[in-house]
Amino acid sequence: MQFFNEFITSHRQKLFLDGFTIIKKKNISNLDNFLNKVNNLENNLDNFENQKKQKGAYTLKPTVQQQNKELFLDTLFLSNIFESCCLIAGQQLYLTNFKHYLTKGKTPALGWHRDTYYRKNKFTGLIPTGYKLAIYTKNVTENDGCTAFVKGSHRIDFNNKYFDYFLTYFSNKIRKVELDKGDAVLFNVNLIHNRLKASNFNSIRAVTIYGFALSHHYQEKYLNDNNGKIIDYFNSELKKRIS
Ligand SMILES: O=C(O)CCC(=O)C(=O)O
Fold first, then answer.
1. To test the ligand 1 pocket, which listed residue (179, 195, 210, 212) has its Cβ within 8 A of the most ligand atoms?
2. What is the pLDDT of residues 158-194, one digit of tens each?
3. How far apart are CA 82 and CA 95, in angstroms?
4. Does ligand 1 come within 6 angstroms of the Cβ of 69?
5. What is the CATH number of domain 6-241?
């Protein structure tokens, strides 16, 4: 119990200070079945389509994502990862969506961005700020297009793109997360982050990214197309566990 409390507290402090925290696979139970099945999906490129918003990256086709929604959502509950994320964040989290990304070979960087921000009197993204959980289904090194963060930038936000540019290119706050298959990262979506370019011809980088809001209320915004079925399934599984 003491180990558990210390584990959660240290991740919570990292999340507060840095805006992200790495959860190693050894601390996540029952992940192997998920990793094996997702690797099988990754082995067939017919399961994927070009991701329109991310040049050079692929995501699961909507039909394949629907067929496999139980695989991606059950793993949150069958392992301890979702419960750990709620304890680390200090509150109940509610799924808004998930995407499984694949990049193969040389791939350009996604670009530095915050998901939630305020510019020119306009808010973008979820207010209050939600979280994303990334579970890596392949090892990832700096040259494979790893995720990178501007450490602490969720707490240094002057709502100004030039200041963000300064943080990204001239500060020493960039952290590139090199990880092993099965490791996960929980991050605050106000944090400046990026998928760096993959510079190896033979690199394969794969990750499932789940978006979480802080209330049921925010799920409504995501009830479009087939995503409603994904949210309904998540909510019904969550209800079984918290009622
Ligand atoms: O794929 C990544 O590492 C970053 C993804 C990202 O930027 C996002 O989900 O907002």
1. 195
2. 999 999 999 999 889 999 999 999 999 999 999 999 9
3. 10
4. no
5. 2.60.120.620
